[in-house]
Structure formats: structure tokens, C-alpha cells
Write a structure and sequence with these properties.
Number of domains: 2
Largest sheet: 3 strands, parallel
Protein name: FAD-dependent oxidoreductase
Oligomer: single chain
Distance between the termini: 32 Å
Number of strands: 5
Cofactor: FAD
Strand content: 15-25%
Order of helices and strands: EHEEEEHHH
Family: Belongs to the oxygen-dependent FAD-linked oxidoreductase family.
Organism: Pseudonocardia xinjiangensis
Strand order of the largest sheet: 1-3-2
Structural class: alpha/beta
Keywords: FAD, Flavoprotein, Oxidoreductase
Radius of gyration: 15 Å
Length: 138
């Protein structure tokens, strides 16, 4: 989503990650070059992923989603609409933001509020290195 407030702000570069190894390599590159490393999973951003002197890591292609044994596994770039569409087939839901085009990484790392986050246990923000477990709701 284009926002003219941030038009003049440009990252040093954008790495489009298609594997976990791509993400690791991007983080190492940013660290080795004294750059901030900013994840972007798609959809909207109100300036959070628009940073100067930074490498933006686009994890949008990491968008796999699966559900088995009451556990949903989602890639960092999975979109909220796709996640909720799959979970709806099983009568489940997940506390996230409300924008259908938003990628899961923002809400999983502490951003976004939606209809499911107010009445259910919204997990705290976590480090990207930690596993993120949120309650599935019927």
C-alpha cells in the first residue's frame, strides 16, 4: 500500500526471501553492514517497514499454510485472509488484525488489532527467533 507520507524514505535495499536460508542470509548481511533489518510480510504498513539505512526483508513468498491435529502452521508471509479462510473450514479462528491483505508477521510480532484480539488471549510480541503459539478458538 502506497503512503505519500513515506515517499521520500528509501531503504538501502530489499531482499525478497523465498526460503528460511534467505532470511538468515539477509539478517547476516544487515548485521555485517551495520544496517537495521526490517521484516515485511505484505499488505499494509503505516511506516513500520519504511526505514532509511535499513535492509527490508520481504518474506511475502514464505506464505505456506497447513492445518492438522488442531495446529495451524503458517509461513511468515501468509496473508490473514488465507489463514482465516483455511481455519474457517475447521470452525477455528486465530487472534489477528482485521485487514485481509496483511501478512501474519506484523500481527505475530505485536502489531495490529482486530475483532479477535479483544475478547481472546492475544499473545505478547515475540522475538522472530521464538516459536509463536496462539490459541485457536472455536
Amino acid at each position: 500500500m502506497f503512503n505519500p507520507r513515506f515517499e521520500s524514505i528509501q531503504p538501502v535495499g530489499v531482499a525478497r526471501a523465498t526460503t528460511a536460508d534467505d532470511v538468515r542470509a539477509s539478517i547476516r548481511f544487515a548485521r555485517d553492514n551495520a544496517l537495521a533489518c526490517v521484516p515485511k510480510s505484505g499488505g499494509q504498513s503505516f511506516g513500520a517497514s519504511t526505514v532509511e539505512n535499513a535492509l527490508v526483508v520481504d518474506v511475502g513468498p514464505l506464505n505456506g499454510i497447513s492445518y492438522a491435529d488442531n495446529v495451524v502452521t503458517v509461513g511468515a508471509g501468509a496473508g490473514l485472509y488465507d489463514i482465516h479462510s483455511l481455519l474457517d473450514k475447521y470452525g477455528r479462528s486465530l487472534p489477528t488484525g482485521a485487514g485481509p491483505t496483511i501478512g501474519i508477521s506484523g500481527p505475530a510480532l505485536g502489531g495490529g488489532m482486530g475483532i479477535h484480539t479483544r475478547g481472546h488471549d492475544r499473545p505478547p510480541a515475540r522475538s522472530p527467533r521464538q516459536s509463536h503459539r496462539a490459541p485457536l478458538r472455536s
